[in-house]
UniProtKB/TrEMBL annotation:
Coiled coil: none annotated. The keyword Protein biosynthesis does not apply. The keyword Transcription regulation applies. This is Zf-HC2 domain-containing protein. The chain crosses the membrane at residues 78-99, 111-131, 152-175, 181-199, 206-224, 236-253. Residues 9-39 form the Putative zinc-finger domain. Keywords: Membrane, Transcription, Transcription regulation, Transmembrane, Transmembrane helix. The lineage of its organism: Bacteria, Bacillati, Actinomycetota, Actinomycetes, Pseudonocardiales. It comes from the Bacteria. InterPro entries: Anti_sigma_zinc_sf, Znf_put.
Length: 260
């Protein structure tokens, strides 16, 4: 690297993605941000042509994946690569809850297992759809222009589009009222997204699920009586929680849009 501009060899290594010492890499990137002529050297000039000439033999020997179908590419914009097994697991849990309710082994009196698990089931899919530990392509996805809240919203909608219809069928089979679980379900999902901005989506999901299990599920089973939180009278409270979560998400989205 010269006193003012990167040398040809260093720029070639930078474009090709070779191992470059960290200090030189940072210096090149900082220089390119403020130097239009050097950025122009990377585009149609001999450096880029030489890089492609070096890469061409390697690309010719690299097995090419068959082109993905258009509908698969469209689905990939909405669903995480690991979402399939998680969504299948959530639907399986719903089916098991229906079977237990119908058998009467868990549902006694007014207690319904479907009613107990329905509010938090979508949260499992949301956590799986956006998490560093669960998504092997998380770093690549997080670096895309559509990462952040827009992608989280897309994946959340995809999760709800699969889970909510399954829960609707389960509620019809078991007699669980739609009013008792739909608003808590949406409220938990929005609160996961809102709280995820502070502690991460996965941690937010785990925190809310643990709170639901300790505060609602365990007391309901222990007392053999449906919690007040799942009563129809609690509908205004859940509506308020849902509205608060949406407001937090909207404010956060506006703040990020302005900062970007």
């Amino acid at each position: 690297m010269t006193a003012h501009h990167p040398g040809e060899q260093l720029l070639r290594q930078y474009v090709r993605g070779d191992d470059v010492p960290a200090d030189q890499l940072w210096a090149v990137e900082a220089h390119l941000e403020s130097c239009a002529p050097c950025r122009g050297r990377l585009a149609p000039d001999p450096i880029a042509e030489q890089v492609w000439a070096d890469l061409a033999p390697v690309l010719d020997r690299t097995p090419q994946m068959p082109p993905a179908r258009s509908w698969l590419r469209h689905v990939s914009h909405w669903v995480s690569p690991v979402a399939g097994p998680w969504l299948a697991m959530i639907l399986l849990v719903t089916a098991v809850a229906v079977a237990l309710d119908q058998a009467g082994s868990v549902a006694r009196g007014q207690i319904s297992l479907v009613l107990l698990v329905a509010p938090v089931l979508p949260v499992l899919g949301v956590a799986a759809s956006w998490g560093r530990a669960m998504d092997p392509a998380h770093e690549l996805t997080a670096a895309t222009p559509r990462a952040g809240l827009p992608l989280v919203f897309r994946r959340t909608v995809a999760v709800l589009a699969v889970v909510v219809p399954g829960l609707l069928v389960a509620s019809q089979l078991t007699g669980a009222s739609l009013t008792q679980w739909m608003l808590p379900c949406l409220a938990f999902t929005t609160c996961t997204l809102a709280l995820g901005g502070l502690i991460g989506i996965t941690r937010a999901a785990i925190t809310l699920i643990a709170g639901w299990a300790a505060g609602i599920v365990l007391p309901t089973i222990a007392l053999s009586r449906t919690s007040v939180a799942l009563d129809v009278a609690a509908t205004p409270v859940w509506a308020a929680v849902l509205a608060a979560g949406l407001i937090v998400i909207a404010v956060r989205f506006r703040t990020q849009s302005r900062s970007s």
